[in-house]
Amino acid sequence: MAVCAAIIGKDNSPKYFTCINPDEELGFQYKVLSSLDVVEEKLNNGTKSGSDSRELYLGLLYSLERHKIYGYVTNTKIKFIIVIDSTNTSLRDNEVRSMFRKLHSIYADNVCNPFYIPDEPINSKSFDKSVKNIMSGA
Amino acid sequence: MNGIDSSASDTVDRRPIITCAGELEVFSALEDSLTQALPQDSCELRRSLGRPVRLVHIGANFIPFSPTALPKESQWDLIRQPLFHVYWTECADVDVYKTAVKDDIESWLKELAAKEISDWLIVVVENYDGKRANKLLPRTTVLDKIRADYAPKQGDRCISVINPGRSETRSADSWRGLVGRVRHLVLVAYAKAVVKLEDHVRHQREKRTEPEWDFMNYFFLQEELAQVLEMLGLYDEALVQYDELDVLFSQFIVNGHIGELANWLHKFQKPLERWHGLKLGPSKLMQNTSFLELRAYLFAKQAHMLLLTNKVWEMAARCLPFLHACVKELILLDITAPSGAVSCWLFLACMEVLQTCNHFNQLDQVEAYFANTATLWAYASQKLRELGELCGLMPGQNPTSEQLHMVVGLSAGMGDCSGRSGELSPTDKLKKALSSQDAFNKNYLELVELTMVTYKHIGHLRSARLIGLEVASFYMLLLETQKAAAFLGDALRTFESDGWHELAAQTQVKLAECYRKADDVRKFIASCAAVSAAPEIDNLIRLSYFDEMRKCLDNLDKSLVVPFEDIIKIINITIKNNNGSVMQDDIMDVHLIVDCNFPREVLCTNIVMTLEPESKENKKMKDKSVNERTIIVKDIKHNSNSILRVLHMQRHLDYKQDKQLSSANVVCKSPPFKRKSSTISPQPCNFDFCLEVTELPLVLTPGINIIRLTKKATDIGKFYLGRVAINIGKLSLISNPLNFKLVIEVTKEEPSLRLDKGENALLFGLEQTMQLFLKVGSYAISRDSVIKLSASRGMTIQHIPNEQLTSSLEVPITNVEPFSTSMTLLRVFAEHSSKDHQITLVCPWSNKPIPVTLSFSPLLAISWRLHTVHNRKFIHVTLLGQTDTKLQLSSSHLDFRDKIKTKALHIDSYDQILEKGVNISYVWEILTIQSSESPPLKAQFSTYYTAIVTEDESTNIDTTTRQFIHHLDIANYQTLYRVEIDVQPTKGNEFCRVGALCNLNLCIKPASHMLDTVEIETSLMYEVLAEPTVWAVCGRTAGVVSFETDMEPQIVVLEVMPLNNGFLPLPLVRLSKYIPADVSTSDKSRKGAESHPRLEPFSPGQVYNVSKGHQVYVIAATVTEATVT
Fold first, then answer.
1. Looking at the predicted structure, is the pLDDT value of residue B642 above 80?
2. Quick one: which of A103, B323, B574, B1094 is 20 to 30 A from B778 by CA?
3. Which CATH superfamily includes the segment(s) B564-643+681-747?
């Protein structure tokens, strides 16, 4: 189960940010922000070595004592970040991966919404609900 | 080589143990060379289960054989067991062998077989001497015997070797054979043993769910395997064993957390008592080890293996996950520890790894070093800070006695650990850091600095900035606000450039606090403004900062400039003037819509928008500006943020091995991750020339405000809207220069001058009026300025009524106000004879004279002809009306100069009206004396004309009576010859008939007055010019007659034939002067020799055709005659 999820635009500004405990949001923002460094590094190195550019999942970006931060980047350089509690031992890489895939799918749906202006922060309630569902592993 | 101090106490001889039996004295001679020779070359280690073949170097440690030292079934410490056994003998004689050696070998093998050992070798050492060499080969040797006896199927277990001590050349091959055989067999033994051990390990592992299973026992067992592999130099495989142990241990803890904790794990759940630092390098695991010690040992082992395989950076990279896992497992196992103890341990572990990394940090590996150690530095500094906070070592704190006790406790728990040569060990460092506040500060700042540098080096700027925030808070505690502000500012910029507004706002709050502490009012105000305008911050906080800002503003002595940033956003700018162009002295009008983010209303003392005159730089921007008159927030945003920046997509094709296309993609090779350059501080700009708000003061309310900015346009030119400044007392908020250029063009209109004729065309010889229009432009002209007009020759003008017309005049400008118009009537008169005219205008506002071309039409056309009757001459003058204006003509005269009289043949008693298209003719007879000479006559025709005004026409037509004069030049008018033509039927014919020849009698007579003259052209050429449809000239058509000898008439008869019947006009005869080619010498008047005769025509009037107009009657040809002829 994820504790925090974020969608970062291609200009690295947050488009959507949520976490289970709203009081911790600021702390998570710092963590997610610093994870962008790793995303950048991975993307830059990835293109250099000519690795499979179709792989969107970036894997574990970095881990903290209590949290692990995973990343995923779409072809249009929209970054999805998921933070999970590292004490949650039941969560495997594959589950994180599928979480990202679901997140990508609902993000794509949201972008398809004609009332959503791409690159604007996402305020949709239904989107929020869907993300919370994904985070809780439902 | 790997930086690990090998002089530690734990120096186990890690060489396979080989026992020796039989004739030991034989072996001892060979032992040294064998020990040396074995590790010199590699040998293949073949293993079952399809694992790859590895090349292994192997050494050996030889011990005497003893049955008691043989490994037992349950003993798995392979490295301390002899696994290979050799029997040495020197026996060369088969009989001796049979009697003594054979029994010995038999009992040796029995001992081995009892322990189920099959890894043995019997070596027969042969000593070649002269005696043996001469002998024939024996039928059977001892070796053959031994083979037959003990190893019928395993021939390789027995080997003979020529003693290398005796005969070096021959023994080399056999010696190499022995060494190779020993290597091979030892490895075979080990391969077998390892497989057996692996099976055992697997077997043991499968029992792990049994309650009495103990991890530590298993641990030692598998470590044994790892050690064997290590001994064989298979470090990577040894690492796999340790990794397996690591994972298994973690799994137990995780499982225990979820389900039931394994029994043996309870042993680890005792409270933490020691937190000795992790030590890389050889170490020994003690019995009753604690959790941390086990973990540390395991990591040290893994690290050791990694270092042995030169994977130092993987070791570093593994460290942090390992530490995190330890922390997690400490929690899962509920291991209690004194506060700070775990932090101590973690810090020490980090430092130990970092120190090791430092040893490996070579020039070519700097990148890897930084990349792998950055997070470790960060973790270490975080832990140190935790400790500092815990122990009251942070600046501004005073450690309580409790905290001092804690430091003592923690230091004790760390134990003692001496550093490597000349270096402080991590333990010593930490102890020192915890000893005093100063030491702590120094250590912490040093560590944090290193962390930031490392992060920056690997491009993790954001992480570095976050560390910066930590440092800033530390400096705040140290009251070093300047340093803190620098770090906060850096972080703020990074957050803003990434668009993380909430973080930026939070940082801004910190920054405000920092400036408050520093007592930097000006910066404090700027920060307060930013905080109070941040929607991410709680309203109460915003309001409090806003109020503080206002309070501080009152005390501000100098003006303060703060950029707009997010405080005030420009939503829309519209130029209200038509098309953005403004007439000079008009009002420039711009509407500005801003979104004010202040939480409360704010009273602005002034709002201005700069106008930048167009310059070369600006011109380049012109393309951007297009013709927009409004910019909205999107335009502003797109330019500055370029959100919709085009991704540089590229084609990417994947090919299969056979060069077939596998897939085609579009990829973005360079993700748009370029950081924007930090915002440029507002450049000083000129606020002298700007749009202003008229109604001041103005209240800016939170949210959307519409502000009207105006200015009188004084200067001409293009102006770009520059930046907006909002002044609140001494605080001026200034926007960035607008990226999207809006242009206001201030123009002026020049005065214009026009000269118009009326509806009708201009006429010569009549005074007409024209209109001079003056339109004053956008600016006034000086009051006493004049327009100078000058007319071309033959034309006169005047603008004052009833005043004499002149060739040049000055028209004063009466109406000088902008945009006023004035009209002056201009009278124009052009003389008849002249051609096109022009009026040149000179205006006061322009140096260049303006020529206006006027074209006049003639009033009437005149033509004249000379008529002759014999010797009398008449002048026929015809006037043709050419204008719509009717003219009354009166008193027409023809006057000659030389007192030659004329006689009017027309009636001149009344006036005539000349209309358009109407001819009026006058005829005068010139009364001259007839003579052969005709001096040129100069005559002047004159008539008076008056324009007749009809009632419906305006009165501005000039009705004064004027004289029209035309000069005539008449020359060669005297009659010289008379020509008479007569057509008569031929003799015998009464009439001229069609088709019948007739005689044409041509008679040329000189005029009577010619007789007196001497010098006349005496040769004439005549030509019959007959109408070809009427007359056919037969025979001669031309000829020359001469009056050289006498002046008698010359008669020439020619033949012509009429072609039509009826009254036919006579054929014409043309006379020309004939000048012959050969000029007579007497004729002196001719100059130069003429090679050809030539003709000169006579002037009209010189030849008088008497029969002009005569006709001859021709009757039709008779049919009969026609048929007869």
1. no
2. B574
3. Immunoglobulins (2.60.40.10)
